[in-house]
Design brief:
The complex is a heterodimer of chains A (about 450) and B (about 160). Chain A has 17 helices and 14 strands. Chain A has about 450 residues and is α/β, with parallel strands linked by helices. In chain A, the strands form 3 sheets. A 7-stranded mixed β-sheet of chain A has the order 1-7-6-5-4-2-3, with helices on both faces. In chain A, strands 8-11-14-13-12 form a 5-stranded mixed β-sheet. In chain A, strands 9-10 form a two-stranded antiparallel ribbon. In chain A, helix 5 links the parallel strand 2 and strand 3. Chain B has one domain: Rossmann fold (3-Layer(aba) Sandwich). Chain B is built from 6 helices and 7 strands, in the order αβαβββαβαβαβα. Chain B is globular and about 45 Å long. The relative contact order of chain B is 0.16. The chains are: A alpha/beta (about 450), B alpha/beta (about 160). At the A-B interface, helix 1, helix 2, helix 3, strand 1 and helix 10 of A face helix 1 and helix 2 of B.
Chain lengths: ~450, ~160
């Protein structure tokens, strides 16, 4: 029996999800900036509303331009299906609300993006969904925190901003021993450096705003499923009855039975995006797609530049510490080697790194460093083609209390760099001159 | 593992489908799949001893009875599409072979290696653990709109509209 060719990452980054438009022959993906789609007949309309046929009804539910982005990211992650959302935060929310309700519980890594700590720790808590945050350094911490009401385990491939590497495989095993899915935010690594499904993750979320879009222009998020989690297994079936039982919203359709290995994505689309409206605009989807076509090239540049900056800082007399798993001295280096694609023979660890300045008041020196940067941009974002710089304790992680900051690994003197794809020597120049000004 | 080209060939040439285990209840997966295929130009022949008529088509108690009735009309069954448990497949596979069907298709979660081997040895194409609606939508348009990874990489302009 003939096998289909397995196309490589770069080819799929350019092509997956996009075939020429049947009507016009347009090669580039058209921007279907339409809210609604006509039905051929009353019968056709009924079929669509019953989910008996695939088609487009209303862009809050699905849109052909957004669908190209969904298939593109599903392909690059090695997943079965994906759902695009308005932002990364919306993607996280959608991924979790597809399977959680009031009274349920999440076990999450403590080293997360500040916004996520807020969403899980405060936002969801108000809705009756509790989260326990644990130190991901020891996978057993996840096991210890699991309760009978736990319904998901959550982590980030590369923590923000501690840049710690999440050991996906053992945590996935622990999750599966309890019939639970492991949800991994793969934003910082991007699918080019890591496919969490390869290590046992079940659901991946992305802020496409970051490396996927790559240019700091467009907000978007994506939820991807592996298609391999058995919602009906003996361990899981009692925990996820809404996946198996007749849907209240869809007159008796059982999502897992009807749609099989993309049933979770269908449920997330029809019962969360459609109901809560965190949907992505067609134009935004198109802009992210433009970025994704060069994801592999940009990630190579980000990794090479970041490693050069990290090595430069590690050797710099004015720097007290540097944190980057790409450095062979990092305690996470071997785990990075296991999980991340190699670039120039060393694990590609993305563009984020953190450091502290050697000074009597390192926090103040950090602020002066940021003010002195010539072309590194001071703003709250990561994963732009441009080099970015920020002081997390006073900005992105400002809403965390002291205990949470410590658990997240955010120190008062920490400066976070999102190294861009400018000339390596120019980036090193800007960092060096800003360091000298910071302590003078 | 069925390749894209094999699935395109099967779905392109098997236009009359006997749906074994087709449920008359509208929200059941078998009804979904049969209704979708019917809407996309396929002739559906229901096989279910518990019903007389489904989707406007006469329902037969067995594949053999259905093939006999169609033969009287000068028509043949191309595909035997099974919504039954894996262990119930062997006699159905035998019937598919006996009536000269081109393809034995076993739906999601339906797997029987022995029956599949026999059907292949008799010259039938066999597809297992796949939904005929999902594969049609995947290759001929529609499934990508649900965000599914169709694994299709192509620069050819489709010659038929998805709907």
């Amino acid at each position: 029996m003939a096998q289909d060719r397995e196309f490589g990452f770069a080819t799929r980054a350019v092509h997956a999800g996009a075939i020429p438009d049947p009507v016009t022959g347009a090669r580039a993906t058209p921007i279907h900036q339409t809210t609604s789609f006509v039905f051929d007949s009353a019968e056709h309309a009924a079929s669509l509303f019953n989910l008996q046929t695939f088609g487009n009804v209303y862009s809050r539910i699905s849109n052909p331009t957004v669908a190209v982005l969904e298939e593109r990211v599903a392909s690059l992650e090695g997943g079965r299906a994906a759902l695009a959302c308005a932002t990364g935060m919306a993607a996280q929310m959608t991924a979790l609300l597809a399977i959680l309700k009031a009274g349920d519980h999440i076990v999450a890594s403590s080293t997360l993006y500040g916004g996520t700590v807020g969403q899980l720790g405060v936002g969801f808590s108000r809705l009756g969904i509790e989260t326990t945050f644990v130190d991901p350094a020891d996978p057993d911490n996840f096991r210890k925190a699991i309760r009978p009401t736990t319904r998901a385990i959550y982590g980030e491939t590369l923590g923000n901003p501690r840049v710690n590497v999440f050991d996906i495989e053992p945590v996935a095993k622990i999750a599966h021993e309890h019939g639970l899915p492991l949800v991994i935010d793969n934003t910082v690594a991007s699918p080019y450096l890591c496919n969490p499904f390869d290590f046992g993750a079940d659901i991946v979320v992305h802020s496409a705003t970051k490396y996927l879009g790559g240019h700091g222009t467009t907000m978007a998020g994506v939820v991807v499923e592996s298609g391999k989690f058995d919602w009906g297994s003996a361990l899981s079936r009692d925990k996820f009855p809404e996946m198996l039982e007749p849907s209240q919203a869809y007159h008796g359709v059982k999502f897992y039975e009807t749609f099989g290995d993309f049933g979770y994505t269908m449920k997330a689309r029809m019962e969360v995006n459609r109901t809560f409206g965190g949907s992505l605009s067609p134009l935004n989807a198109w802009l992210i797609l433009q970025g994704i076509e060069t994801l592999h090239l940009r990630m190579q540049a980000h990794c090479r530049n970041a490693l050069a900056v990290a090595q430069f800082l590690a050797d710099h007399p004015l720097v007290s510490w540097v944190n980057y798993p790409g450095l062979s001295s990092s305690s996470d280096h071997e785990l990075a080697r296991k999980q991340f694609r190699a670039i120039d023979g060393t694990p590609g660890c993305s563009g984020i790194l953190t450091f502290g300045i050697k000074a009597p008041d390192p926090a103040r020196a950090g602020e002066r460093f940021i003010d002195a940067c010539e072309f590194a941009s001071h703003l709250a974002n990561i994963g732009d083609a441009k080099t970015l710089v920020i002081h997390p304790a006073s900005t992105t992680h400002r809403q965390l209390d002291e205990a949470q900051l410590e658990k997240a690994g955010v120190s008062a003197d920490m400066i976070r760099l999102s190294v861009g794809i400018e000339e390596r020597d120019d980036i090193l120049w800007d960092v060096d001159q800003a360091l000298r000004k910071a302590v003078s | 593992m069925s390749s894209i080209s094999q699935l395109r060939r099967i779905l392109g040439t098997c236009r009359t489908i006997a749906v074994v285990g087709l449920s008359p209840q509208w929200h059941r997966p078998s009804f979904f799949a049969a209704k979708y295929m019917q809407a996309h130009g396929y002739r559906i022949v229901p096989v279910n001893p518990m019903a007389q008529e489904i989707l406007g088509e006469r329902c037969f108690p067995s594949v053999t009875a259905a093939a006999q009735a169609l033969r009287d009309q000068g028509a043949t069954i191309d595909m035997v599409d099974c919504f039954r448990r894996g262990e119930d497949i062997p006699p159905i596979a035998q019937e598919a072979i006996a009536i000269g069907a081109k393809c034995l298709w076993l739906q999601l979660g339906v797997i029987n290696e022995a029956a599949a081997a026999q059907a292949r040895a008799a010259g039938l194409e066999v597809v297992m653990d796949r939904c005929v609606k999902i594969e049609h939508a995947r290759l001929f348009g529609g499934l990508n709109w649900a965000g599914v990874n169709t694994r299709v990489i192509s620069s050819r302009r489709p010659q038929q509209l998805p709907y």
